[in-house]
Amino acid sequence: FRLHAEGCYYYGSTPMTWADANSACVGMTANLVVIETDAERHFVDAFADIPYQYPDEESLSVWLGATDAVTEEEWLWVTGDSVGVDGWLAGSPKNSAAADDHMCVYNLLGVELRYVWDDADGTALLPYFCEM
């Protein structure tokens, strides 16, 4: 657990699907992280500096609490609020596959602006962040 002005955060290191990670957070009376301010985004970015390899990509990924699974291209946080803070990778969300409906943050290794959001297949097994 880590504290920040925006709340208390938990890093779940066991890789899970997005739905299972969301259920794990709810089981702790929490949500997958909802980023509401730039300060919170920077805190989560720093917290995301963990050693997890996203399948087939040179990046480190962690689930966040947004999805467009209900309405394609309408990204909502698990709280039902619209995604307002912009942290998307250039060209994302790309919606390149039908299953790319869930948000992750990942670290582009070797790139100055390292932490960006991307849409990913919700069945990928990734660690996750909860916010209480």
UniProtKB/TrEMBL annotation:
Domain C-type lectin positions: 4-131
Entries under SUPFAM superfamilies matching the protein: C-type lectin-like
Origin: domain of life: Eukaryota
Record PROSITE patterns: C_TYPE_LECTIN_2 (PS50041)
InterPro entries attached to this UniProt entry: C-type_lectin-like, C-type_lectin-like/link_sf, C-type_lectin/snaclec_domain, CTDL_fold
Xref: SMART domains: CLECT (SM00034)
Protein name as it appears in the record: C-type lectin domain family 4 member E-like
Species the sequence originates in: Priapulus caudatus (Priapulid worm)
